[in-house]
Design brief:
The chain has 3 helices and no strands. With 63 residues, the chain is mostly helical. It has one domain. Helix 1 packs across helix 3. The mean pLDDT is 90.
Length: 63
Amino acid sequence: MASKPGLLQVVQSVLASAFGVQSQKKYQNDFSQPDAKVYIAVGIVFVVLFVLSLIALVQWILP
């Protein structure tokens, strides 16, 4: 079993996966973790921030 990843590693992994640049080795390492709660929480935060930033960008471009 792989060692438990730190928060920065989880954030990097979620960002890489979101943009489709995650390596197969890292992908397999992420799914070998026994607890997915941290990945899910970081993923939800990422999606919320991404959607809010898109809304803000559209509001800024189209006042």
